Structure prediction request, 280 residues.
Amino acid sequence: MNHIALYNQTAEQCGKIITNRYSTSFSLGIKLLGKEIRGPIYSIYAFVRLADEIVDTFHGHDKAALLAEFKADTQKAIDRKISVNPVLHAFQEVVHQYKIEQELIDAFLGSMEMDLTGKTYDDSLYQKYIYGSAEVVGLMCLRVFCAGNEQQFNELKDSARSLGAAFQKVNFLRDLKDDFDDRGRMYFPGVDFSCFSSADKQQIEEDIRKDFEDALEGIKRLPDSSRKGVYLAYRYYVKLFLKITRRNPEEIKNHRIRINNASKAYIMMKSFARYQLNLF
Prediction:
């Protein structure tokens, strides 16, 4: 193995380590993907996670400056087709190999910039943020899943956006307290945290259900190499969503709803069985 090949492999492995450390659910899903596409998906997740960490956890530092540097370094990595940052190096390789559009990358980083200031979102900003922070990530992954099949990508892109949106909205509900108390954010338009009501919660849940329904139709038509892994991630988030729906607004405001590791393992086994029996 020559030195650049070794660096490429090491950079990709960094993405796997980051994914495994930060997300049990996505790690399990990626393990069920075809071997040939696991590395690229790890690399996309690591890129997204690194940007998210800058705006959410690098407290006591100049987040705006760090994100601006990250954004500039991302573009340099793409333009030069190499980076000394292994996460960005692996990501640029995926960008070039699977022809991920610049617009998707710009939209994602734009949403990260929106997170630099605590704010209450109106409907327009909410839709813009959901698209940039979640839907485009689904589209990046879909580029990998479709592996150059443009017709398949176009047929599935609306469902990929719906799945990304559903995941993100469930995260918003799960993290309602932390986002408001620690970061001064309220993503859901027209919702007042101090009087978060059953009506507010029900309206949000109906929107998420619609996203999940639309997403499932696309999951059924994914290539064999990706369908099983994406379905597992879908089932995990549906389970988390259902757990949230059974909590009243006060519980959501005061507690972060979680799924323990034993339950995650059960979801994985049940999802695999449903998939094998074609019951999804």
Q: What stands out?
A: The chain has one domain: 3-276.
